[in-house]
Each structure stands twice: as structure tokens, then as C-alpha cells.
Design brief:
alpha/beta, globular
């Protein structure tokens, strides 16, 4: 631990000014669209059928179909998401190429080896992981690939922070561990062909492209702290906690308390 004299000596040094200058330079972070490039590079084409596992409003299924010309099935267990997905698909004019199916990942209503590829983004923290990955493995053709984008906790996330974040975002604590994910994927029958740890990269890109306002999120959290009793009375505790969790999700990513990773999983031929 430095003394006060040493600390202020560092802050006032030329080296400290040069450090500031280095940190002002962009590292050219990849943006969110890079995930589609990675998926497309697997060889997805017009003759392929893609499962969007946990599709929410089908925004990703729509983009994948537009980029690759494939057909897709968008699966999600929530009626709210199904209504939004059907509306989005209809507005995109892609009803002939995208089917919307309400189902849980733990029990998919499809025949064995029905799909050539699987896309799964921001979903696996919510589900029972082993049965979900077993089902994905079952419906994937032999030699097929699954892209799984998942956010994990890092050693920087303090236990009490983790407890509140997981509860607020309906995330299963065990699923927030990359080691647990990799063991479970192997048990389900998958081979991990690659792992790409994005760390802070996407959030850097969002800040540089001004598509995310981190200051606004911090300000909302500060106001929430001061107004919490009033907000809970007005909107309910569940709404307040969900809002807090959503705000912290991005901030914890940029602080390195969580790490987003892209896995490519293969079913052996």
C-alpha cells in the first residue's frame, strides 16, 4: 500500500499523464453484430434449418435468416415473447421462413437431429442447464454446431453482489460459472470447439458507438437508491429489483465483474 506522498507523486507524474493518453485510444472492440459473423462462418446457408433456442422476440432469428437465407424455428417458453416474435416475423415478411414455437429448452418438441445449427444467446443462465443442453444435442444433426453466448461471473463479483444480481435477473447461480457450463456441455455430449471470452469488448463498442449510456444507468441507480421505498410502494418490489438487475448487468460487464463468452459446441459426426 503506497503512502500518501507516494500516491500523489504518481498522480502528478508525467508517466501518469502518458497512461491517460494510452487509455484514451480505442482498442477497436468488436460490436454486437460480430456474433452473426461468427455464426455465419460456420457455413450456415439457404438449405439449413436453424433453431433459435430462447428466441424472445425473434429479432436474432430474423437477422440470421436475412443474412444467410436459411430457415429458422424460434423457440421460447413465454407467451409474451411468442406474441412479440410472431408480430416481428410478420412485420419482416418472413412467415414462410421462420416458425415460432412455444416450448421449454428442457423439453423440445422436435425429432432427433432436426436442426443443422443452433443459435442460443443470453438464455442459458435462466434454464436447467443439463437437460437443456441434452435436448439441444439431441435435436442437432450429427456434425452440426451450436453457438452459445453466455455471461458468467468473474472473481471480481463479490458474493453479496452475485446473490442480488442472480436473484434480480432470474439467473441460476451454478449456470454463471464457466467451469460448470463446460462440464455440463461435455456431459450432454458436446465437444467444445472454441471459446472466445469477450470480457468488456462489447460494452466498449457500445460506449464508443454511443448505443449505450452508462452514465444514464448510473444516474438511474443513484436515484433508485434514494427513492427506493417510494418506488417499491408505487411499482412493487419485483419491478424495482428487476430494473436494478438490468441496470447492473451492463455496468458489471464493463467493470469486469462478469464476462461474456462465445462457445462453439459440436455434435460429433
Amino acid at each position: 500500500m503506497p503512502t500518501v506522498e507516494e500516491l500523489y507523486g504518481v498522480w502528478g507524474s508525467e508517466e501518469y499523464d502518458r497512461l491517460d493518453a494510452d487509455l484514451e485510444r480505442s482498442l477497436n472492440p468488436r460490436g454486437l453484430a460480430s456474433l452473426y459473423d461468427i455464426f455465419g462462418a460456420l457455413g450456415v446457408g439457404a438449405e439449413d434449418l436453424v433453431l433459435d433456442a430462447g428466441a424472445r422476440d425473434a429479432v436474432h432469428a430474423i437477422e440470421i435468416v436475412r443474412r444467410t437465407g436459411c430457415r429458422s424455428v424460434a423457440v421460447d417458453p413465454l407467451p409474451l415473447h411468442m406474441n412479440k416474435a410472431r408480430r416481428r416475423v410478420a412485420e419482416a415478411g418472413l412467415e414462410a421462413r421462420i416458425d415460432v414455437v412455444q416450448a421449454e429448452l428442457e423439453s423440445l418438441p422436435f425429432e432427433d437431429e432436426s436442426f443443422d445449427y443452433i443459435w442460443c444467446r443470453d438464455v442459458l443462465n435462466h434454464v436447467e442447464l443439463e437437460p437443456s443442453l441434452r435436448e439441444c444435442h439431441r435435436v442437432l444433426r450429427r456434425g452440426g454446431s451450436m453457438l452459445a453466448y453466455q455471461t458468467f461471473a468473474t472473481e471480481r463479483l463479490e458474493p453479496h453482489e452475485a446473490q442480488h444480481l442472480f436473484a434480480a435477473t432470474a439467473s441460476r447461480a451454478e449456470n454463471m460459472s464457466p467451469e460448470f457450463f463446460e462440464r455440463t456441455a461435455a456431459v450432454a455430449g458436446f465437444r467444445i470447439s472454441s471459446r472466445d471470452d469477450l470480457r468488456t469488448e462489447w460494452r466498449e463498442a457500445m460506449l464508443e458507438q454511443q448505443t449505450w449510456d452508462a452514465v444514464a444507468d448510473l444516474l438511474s441507480l443513484a436515484r433508485m437508491s434514494r427513492l427506493e421505498p417510494e418506488l417499491v410502494e408505487r411499482y412493487g418490489g419485483a419491478a424495482v429489483e428487476a430494473k436494478r438487475g438490468g441496470l447492473l448487468w451492463g455496468l458489471y460487464q464493463i467493470l469486469g465483474k462478469t464476462c461474456s463468452s462465445i462457445y462453439l459446441l459440436e455434435r460429433s459426426a
